[in-house]
Structures are given as structure tokens and as C-alpha cells.
């Protein structure tokens, strides 16, 4: 076993047993430590590490985190929570919470939706006396499933869109991912509706009044329009990019620059630009940079190529794509897995790219490390002073959802491929 593969395994184990580590140790600390060790040991050079990072993706995430932070400052999370609390039936509240989180993920990425959704989860948990850990895991499931139906719903979709260069990326995701996404979202609701009723109130997990007050105490910015303009600008440019590719045969716009241009109103005209910049989820950005360094070292070492063996010549096969992207995501997280898979993939049809996108996305429902949005939920909950779910709680509650979503997504994409949908 190579040093790079050994360090990656230790990172996974470190995150798995984090609940027994000192409280000050965060998930991003573990990933960053792994990247530093690989650099110190010479497994990857600083220059190679720099080029291993997908900076376009980092810029895009910085932009959506800025937009999410600014929207939070406008009181969006509190407004959504207030609308949900007006409904007396707890089942309907949970349903609309899941739907709203999924829609937010489809528009602003799952990572931004996680930032906005955590304070809502805390408020709802207190109001309906739900176990907070269950509501937070439901948020993770909702933003993961919601993100699979949009070309900008998550970072791995963005990587796939850039590599595949779909003629109409919005239409492609509607055809290939919308139906399984809706079916999976229904399953998420029924699964967590049962869990909130089964778990009931756990006094040890009850959100303290101080935490709830912190989640509710949003200092509303005097100017709300810059955040709204940035969000609309982001959606507008992405839609225009898709239409430009389809009808005018224009080249794809760099997603990083799309994001940076979209968040300009916040930093040029917003009242709270410094606070927004400070509140950007820097921990998650560091996590992503470190993760790219770790996977870059893995790719450079040839460990993955060796493990794949003869399968490396069959990466365009739908079943191989599903199996490799699912299981590799459990160890290395779905974003770097997709990045590496696209490097190893020699061509591919629409079905192959969409299988890679959807299966790697729903793979994020099994372990905390499998998707960065799960990590964000944990870090945001801890930021508010709440105690989130453990590694094994997450895995146990998510297991049925994961299996169901994988089967539905695989079956839908396989069926479209057999029918010759291109």
C-alpha cells in the first residue's frame, strides 16, 4: 500500500472516530493535517499540490458561500422558519423543510443550502421538540438529493458539466436526473418523518435556549437587494450559459468567474461586505483545498490506477461507473472522486457522465465524509453551539435512503441509455 493511500485511509478513520477525539478537533483539521503530512513526506510537491486544486471550483464555492452568508444576514433563514412554523401539522412542516432545502440546493449548491438550512433545523427542532440530530441528518439528505437535479447543484455536477460539455446542461439534467431526484426526495420525507416520530424528544439532544437564540438572532442588513441581485445574477448567468451553448454554440463559461461576477453586488454595494467576507465558510474551503491535495497525491502515486486494474479500460461502462463512483466516494469524498474519474475516463456518452454525476451524489448519503455538504452541516451546527450527529448515527439513519436512491438512479439512467436517449 502506498503512503498516499495509507494517509487517505487514516484520514477516513480519523473522521470516523472524531466523536472520541478532543472537541476542538474539527473535520477540516483532519483533512488539512493529512495534506500537510503528504507535502512534508514529499508524496506531492507544492507545485503539483497547487495544480491539483480545482481553483475554478474553489472560486465558485467562495461565491456561493458569500451569497448564502449575505442571504442569511437578510433574515432568509428566519423568514423560512417563520413560514414553516405557521403550519400546525408537524408532518407538513418537515415536508416543506425538506422541499425548501432541496430547491435551495438545486439553485445555490448543496453546500450553500447547508449553510442556510442549519439555523432553520435548530429552530424547528426546538419548536416541535424533535431530536436535533435527526433534523440535521434530514437536512443533509434533502440537500444531497436536491442537488442531483441541477448542473450547479453540487461541485461534482459542475466538474461533470465542464468535462462533458453538454449542449444544453439544464435540459440534460432535467431528463436524466429530475425523475429519480423527485422519487428519492419523497423517500427522504417518509424516512425522516418516521425517524422524528420514533426518536421523539431526547433530553440530552435538546437544543439549549442559548443555541436557539443564537440561531434566531439575525441582524438584518439595511440593504437586502445586493444579496437578492447576486442570487438572481448567478441563476441568470447559468441559464444564459446553457442557452448560449444550445442556440448560439458558444463555449462554456468558467464557473469560477461566473460565481465571482455574481457576488460582486454583495461586495460592491452591500452594507455588510466585511462581515459577509468574514462569515464565508473558510473551514470548508480549506477542507476542499486539502482534499484536492490528498487526491492529487493519490493520483500521482498511481494507487488508484493500480486498484482499478483492468477496470480502468471499462470506466465508460455504466455499471463500472456506478460501482467505482459509489464506493470510492465513501473513502475519498465524491468531489475529488469525480475529479479523478474524469481524468482517467477516456471519452464517454451522456449516460456515463450522468451516471457518474448522480451516483457520486447519492453516495454522499452514506458517510459524513462522502459529501462536503455533510461536513458543512456538522461544522455549522458546532458553530451555533449545538451538538450534531455522530458518524455512526448518520450512517445508520441514511443507509436505507442510500440504497434506495442508488437503485432508483441507476435504474433510470440505465433505462434511458437502453432506449437510446442522448
TrEMBL record:
Name of the protein in question: Transporter, YbiR family
- For this protein, what is any one GO molecular function term? arsenite transmembrane transporter activity
Q: What topology in the membrane does the UniProt record assign?
A: Multi-pass membrane protein
Species in which this protein is naturally found? Pseudovibrio denitrificans
Q: What is the lineage of its organism?
A: Bacteria, Pseudomonadati, Pseudomonadota, Alphaproteobacteria, Hyphomicrobiales
Task: Name the residues that span the membrane.
Answer: 28-50, 57-74, 94-123, 130-149, 169-190, 229-248, 254-270, 282-300, 354-377, 397-421
Cell compartment(s), UniProt: Cell membrane
- Write out the GO cellular component annotations: plasma membrane
Citrate transporter-like domain location, by residue? 25-344
A Pfam family cross-referenced in the UniProt record is: CitMHS
Highest taxon listed in the record's lineage: Bacteria
By sequence similarity, the record places it as follows:
Belongs to the CitM (TC 2.A.11) transporter family.
- Keywords, sorted A to Z: Cell membrane, Membrane, Transmembrane, Transmembrane helix, Transport
Checking InterPro entries in the record gives: Arsenical_pump_ArsB, Cit_transptr-like_dom
Amino acid at each position: 500500500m502506498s503512503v498516499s493511500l495509507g494517509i487517505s485511509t487514516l484520514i477516513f478513520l480519523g473522521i470516523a472516530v472524531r466523536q472520541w477525539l478532543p472537541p476542538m478537533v474539527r473535520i477540516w483539521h483532519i483533512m488539512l493535517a493529512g495534506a500537510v503530512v503528504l507535502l512534508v513526506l514529499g508524496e506531492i510537491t507544492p507545485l503539483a499540490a497547487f495544480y491539483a486544486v480545482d481553483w475554478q471550483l474553489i472560486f465558485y464555492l467562495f461565491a456561493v458561500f458569500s451569497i448564502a452568508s449575505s442571504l442569511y444576514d437578510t433574515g432568509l433563514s428566519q423568514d423560512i422558519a417563520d413560514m414553516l412554523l405557521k403550519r400546525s401539522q408537524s408532518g407538513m412542516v418537515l415536508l416543506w423543510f425538506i422541499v425548501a432545502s432541496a430547491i435551495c440546493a438545486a439553485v445555490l449548491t448543496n453546500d450553500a443550502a447547508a449553510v442556510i438550512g442549519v439555523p432553520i433545523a435548530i429552530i424547528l427542532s426546538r419548536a416541535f421538540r424533535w431530536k436535533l440530530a435527526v433534523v440535521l441528518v434530514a437536512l443533509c439528505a434533502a440537500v444531497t438529493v436536491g442537488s442531483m437535479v441541477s448542473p450547479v447543484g453540487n461541485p461534482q455536477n459542475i466538474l461533470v458539466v465542464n468535462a462533458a460539455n453538454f449542449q444544453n446542461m439544464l435540459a440534460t439534467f432535467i431528463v436524466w436526473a429530475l425523475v429519480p431526484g423527485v422519487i428519492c426526495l419523497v423517500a427522504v420525507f417518509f424516512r425522516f418523518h418516521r425517524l422524528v416520530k420514533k426518536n421523539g424528544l431526547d433530553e440530552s439532544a435538546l437544543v439549549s435556549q442559548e443555541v436557539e437564540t443564537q440561531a434566531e438572532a439575525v441582524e438584518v442588513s439595511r440593504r437586502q437587494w445586493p444579496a437578492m441581485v447576486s442570487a438572481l445574477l448567478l441563476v441568470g448567468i447559468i441559464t444564459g450559459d446553457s442557452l448560449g451553448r444550445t442556440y448560439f454554440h458558444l463555449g462554456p463559461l468558467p464557473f469560477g468567474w461566473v460565481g465571482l461576477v455574481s457576488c460582486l453586488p454583495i461586495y460592491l454595494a452591500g452594507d455588510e461586505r466585511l462581515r459577509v467576507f468574514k462569515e464565508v465558510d473558510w473551514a470548508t474551503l480549506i477542507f476542499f483545498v486539502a482534499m484536492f491535495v490528498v487526491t492529487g497525491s493519490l493520483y500521482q502515486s498511481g494507487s488508484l490506477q493500480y486498484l482499478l486494474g483492468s477496470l480502468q479500460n471499462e470506466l465508460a461502462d455504466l455499471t463500472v461507473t456506478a460501482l467505482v463512483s459509489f464506493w470510492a466516494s465513501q473513502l475519498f469524498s465524491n468531489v475529488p472522486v469525480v475529479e479523478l474519474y474524469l481524468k482517467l475516463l477516456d471519452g464517454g456518452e451522456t449516460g456515463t457522465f450522468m451516471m457518474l454525476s448522480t451516483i457520486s451524489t447519492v453516495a454522499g448519503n452514506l458517510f459524513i465524509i462522502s459529501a462536503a455538504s455533510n461536513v458543512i452541516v456538522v461544522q455549522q451546527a458546532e458553530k451555533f453551539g449545538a451538538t450534531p450527529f455522530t458518524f455512526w448515527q448518520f450512517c445508520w439513519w441514511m443507509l436505507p435512503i442510500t440504497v434506495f436512491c442508488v437503485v432508483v438512479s441507476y435504474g433510470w439512467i440505465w433505462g434511458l441509455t437502453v432506449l437510446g436517449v442522448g
